[in-house]
Amino acid sequence: AAEAVLATDPEDPLARFVLVVKMMSARQNAADRRAVAAACTRILDRAPDDLLALKHRGLNLAEIGDESGAEDMKRACQLDPEDSGTWQLGGYVNLRLGRYRDAEECLDRSLALEPDVEEAVKQRGFARLQLGKAAEARADFERSWVLPTRAGSVDQEVLGVLVKFAERDGDTKAPVRLVT
Question: Mapped to the 3 state alphabet, what secondary structure does 31-58 carry?
Fold first, then answer.
């Protein structure tokens, strides 16, 4: 029903809310992601600059390996160049698609706008690691580890990467310093 309303009125707040709820639950399987992307396409047919639809179509397409998700995020970043979250999502989408240089560029822009976003720093570290920039990746992982947004949680993936860096460099104290 929400999709029918959006087809005639892409600005309808209730229909948009229902679509967002569907988008959030679509993380379960590829068929749901395709359905969300199709709903976003219908919105974009009538409102080509709808940021919410661009971001969610881009994310859902990237999650199923569709390269056109990166184009949606590129467009969203052009429409909202001062929003660090849009750039961060662009970085994530490019990272998921294996477009590591584009991911790094998006995350650089995100962090230039809002430098202390732990998740953006961590994502940039993974992009840099894939690009062979080990020293920069390590610096990002170490920085993400101490940012205030961490709220005391331990990111096992980042810890594992930092332990491997420390082992490679013969620095047995590095992981202990980070955890304590």
Answer: HHHHHHHHHHHHHHHHCCCCHHHHHHHH
